[in-house]
Each structure stands twice: as C-alpha cells, then as structure tokens.
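ok here's DYW domain-containing protein:
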Amino acid sequence: MISTISSTRFPQLLPQTHHDNKLKHFQFYCYAPIRNAPLSAVSTTNSTYVTSNFESQIHEIERLCEQSNTEASILLTEQSIKDGFPIQLQTLLRLLQCCAGSRSLALVRKAHYLITRSQPKTSTLVFRYLASIYYKLGGSTDARQLLDKMLQKTRPVNKRRETYEKVRELHKEIREIGYLPDTRYVLQDIDEKAKEQSLMYHSERLAIAFGLISTPPGTALRIMKNLRICGDCHNAVKLMSKVVDREIIMRDNKRFHHFRDGVCSCGDFW
Ligand SMILES: [Zn+2]
Ligand SMILES: [Zn+2]
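and the structure:
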C-alpha cells in the first residue's frame, strides 16, 4: 500500500477515506511539495485542491486532533505556519487540548511554541490554560517560567495604563484649583482641545504620574529632563506639588526646580 502511494507525486491523489494511521502521517508529509510544485502541474492534477488547500489543511488538523493523532496534527500545523498560513487560535486550542490528552509534555511544549509563533499577542487566558496543563502533566518548571514571562509582559502595560489614568486625574485636580492650559506652548497646528491634550501628556507630567503611582505617599520625586521645561508644565507642576503634597525636584537643561506647595524655587525665572 505505502509503496503505491510513495510513487504518487501529489497528496490529493491519496485515497481520502483510508483510516490507517501510518497512511495519515504519510499523507501529511506529502503536503509540503504541493505548494512548491509549479501551479500548472498542480492544476492539471486537481485545481480545486489548490484553491481550498488552506481550508482543507485546517480541516485536516482538526480531524487529526479528533482522532487523537497528536504528532501528525502538530507536524501539519507547523508546516502550515511555516508556509505562512494564519492558524486561528480556535484551531491551536484544539491542538493544545489534543496534546494535553496525549499526556506528553514534549508535545504540549511543541503546541505552546506553535501558539506563540502564530499568535504573538496571545491572551493571558490562553497562557493560564497552558500553565494549568503543564502543572497537570508534572511540568511545574514550564508552568512557572510561563507565568513569570506573562507577569513581566503584563506589568509594564498595566503601569502605562495607570500612568495615563493618573495624569488625567491630576489634571482634573489642578483644574479645580485654577489650572488653565496655556496652549501657546504647543506649536503644532491642531485644534484647542488637541493642544490641551498634548500638553497634558508632556513627558515630565507622565514622569510625575508614574512616580506618584510607584512610590509611597510623601516621597519626593526626582525628575531629569534634557530639554528646558515649558512654561505650561512649570505652571502645572507647581499646582501638582500642591494637590499631591509632594516635593518635586526637576532638573532641566538649565537648572534645578524645586516644586513644593504650589511654588517653585526658581521664582518663575529660568
Ligand atoms: Zn511642557
Ligand atoms: Zn521653576
């Protein structure tokens, strides 16, 4: 049987109804050459196969998973990704389930690799699920490494979001005590609202917001800036030092500014 097939050049000629496992493996290994074959050669053999190649490959991965043919489904997925086919997360999760069912840590690692390779922005839910599989199969080191990586990735994102939230909150507070954005410091040709937004996110204000969420109450904040602080930031930071009750020490390219309780040591001359 195998010898007849190995002489066959294209996989579409393989009998689709055959359920022998070895044959299925063989069928997979034959998939690779078809894409590299000249289109004319392929189309004379079976044109519908070419157009539906991707769908049939996905279908085949899922079929192999259903039949718990884990290694073959891994190999086919790997090949599809190499060939540039985007494999949906749904299919990858089915593959992962299949690997978990096989109770082979090595196969779960392969599925893990394929998931991260084909879905670089994989959600934390998927990683948690993956970690739970590792734990179940005795791969606690894999699980821990995965969770550590996940934490390293999510922490800065959360901090960034928190920083932006904090800067908005600060502006609400300083507006209440009289802050009015001086949009003359924005040189871009944009409307007033956009100018106010742009001032709000000047780097020193983001640095202050970040400092506030990262340090205990009352800690002095030290900020370095290699450009001269703009007049609107100077005014805003004075008011911030008042509402947050912190000392803010800022070094710009000209001098030090010590902001405390709404005033600056430079006396507004710098
Ligand atoms: Zn500024
Ligand atoms: Zn100053």
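+1. The chain is about 65% helix and 5% strand.
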